[in-house]
Specification:
It contains 5 helices and 5 strands; from the N terminus they run ααβββαβααβ. The protein has 172 residues and is of the alpha+beta class. Helix 3 crosses helix 4.
Length: 172
């Protein structure tokens, strides 16, 4: 998953060019309605599985961009692409901050599912592509390369330890 750094600014400032692109996409769907089939199935379980990624130092101000794609039972429920609030000093830190946002999404959706269904399926699965970030999450290790990471980002470790989620490496 590659985050789109300009997606939020486009959503805020759409114009007729964007509407024409949407009309073309809908026109394509209408033309192919006989060949495209939509299958509805009952989900096996309501497990949260956000995919997270970051684009390191991509902004003009050298801030990284976090991208999150949230799914429940394989169905996309939400997505977000946002510039990070702090300048990351490494790719591992940028990915770690994206993963923290993914865990915040898991916590919110778990609370929502608990309120609606009175059951939560844990652990949720956090999909991450950077091996160093996964190591930082799984091991409570602080080194000279990670000691500068903001304390609020470390909520991810606490929730990993109590088995709210598991982190899985995926290829991009």
């Amino acid at each position: 998953m590659q985050p789109f750094p300009d997606s939020q600014s486009v959503c805020d400032t759409y114009n007729t060019k964007h509407w024409r692109a949407v009309e073309r996409a809908i026109g394509h769907l209408k033309k192919t309605k006989d060949t495209i089939k939509i299958t509805f199935r009952k989900p096996k379980e309501l497990r949260m599985t956000p995919s997270v990624d970051s684009d390191f130092a991509s902004g003009e101000d050298r801030r990284s961009t976090s991208g999150i794609l949230g799914t429940i039972s394989g169905c996309i429920t939400d997505w977000n692409s946002q510039t990070q609030h702090t300048v990351s000093l490494s790719l591992a830190e940028a990915e770690y901050l994206s993963a923290t946002r993914g865990v915040q999404m898991i916590i919110f959706k778990n609370n929502l599912m608990n309120e609606v269904t009175n059951k939560i399926i844990t652990p949720s699965m956090l999909l991450e592509d950077y091996e160093r970030c996964i190591f930082i999450i799984k091991h409570q290790h602080t080194s000279s390369r990670t000691k500068h990471i903001d304390v609020r980002a470390h909520l991810i470790r606490e929730h990993y330890n109590i088995k709210i989620f598991d982190v899985i490496r995926v290829d991009t």
